[in-house]
Amino acid sequence: MITRTGSAEWTGGLKEGKGQVSTKSGALSAQPYGFNTRFEDKPGTNPEELVGAAHASCFSMALAMMLEQEGISGVSIKTTSDISMDKEGDGFAVKKAHLTTTITADADRARVLEIAEKAKAGCPISKLLNAEITMDASVA
Question: Which secondary structure element, helix H or strand E, spans residue 51, and what is its range?
Answer without folding.
Answer: helix 47-69
